[in-house]
Amino acid sequence: MPAQRLDMLRLATRDAEGIEVDEREIHRSGTSYSIDTFRSIRDELGTEVPLVMIVGFDAFTLLETWREWRALTELVHIAVVERPGSDVTGEGFETGSLPPELASCFKERFVDRPLCLHSKPGGMMCCLRLTQLDISSTRIRRMFSDGESPEYLMPTEVIRYVREHGLYGAASN
């Protein structure tokens, strides 16, 4: 399944200028951790290139459970994408919705403009506001298994791939 997810990611980003699919986690043996991935990327690109990890609000609330999470917040910038129903204000997150240590870290590192992330290699956090669709990978997989089409929720080429390979319980054509 990892190779198929990689194929779908390539299809989804094929026409997205400036986005590169990185395969290192697929080829790494054992458990893969974000800190190891970003250290490897940092080794390749050098210490001055800004790196940004984009995560959804739901994943961000669990950041303290990640391996070496504090080191990760130094190594890269973290851009948090709000999700429908997430507790976000113009100045960032209502930190009461975060674990205390993470809330403190967020307050220390918060910048209100994503363009600020270009000014240094890592260590800042920002919020990204995007047009919100209340979708999730779980919902999309359920749509496939129920015979529904996730049209407009994902690229047509990826929908075709899922169906051709009978993934997520989708009927193959």
What does this molecule look like?
By secondary structure, the protein is of the alpha/beta class. The chain folds into two domains: 33-128, HUPs (Rossmann fold, 3-Layer(aba) Sandwich); 137-169, no CATH class. Helices cover 39% and strands 10% of the residues. The chain contains eight helices and five strands. The two termini are 19 Å apart. The relative contact order is 0.13.
Q: Please indicate the count of domains.
A: 2
Please identify, by name, the CATH architecture of the largest domain. 3-Layer(aba) Sandwich
What distance separates the N and C termini?
A: 19 Å
| Major sheet description | 3 strands, parallel
Give me the count of strands.
5
What class would the helix/strand composition place it in?
Answer: alpha/beta
Query: Taking Cα atoms only, what radius of gyration do you get, to the nearest Å?
Result: 18 Å
Number of helices: 8
Q: Oligomer, anyone?
A: single chain
Write the layout of secondary structure elements.
Blueprint: H1 2-13, H2 24-27, H3 34-45, E1 52-56, H4 57-60, H5 69-75, E2 77-81, E3 88-89, E4 92-93, H6 100-109, E5 125-128, H7 137-145, H8 156-164
Parallel strand pairs: 1-2, 2-5
Antiparallel strand pairs: 3-4
Helix pairs in contact: 1-8, 3-5
Please tag this protein with its features.
173 residues, alpha/beta, Rossmann fold, 2 domains, three-stranded parallel sheet, 8 helices, globular
Provide a concise account of the structure shown.
This protein is α/β, with parallel strands linked by helices and 173 residues long.
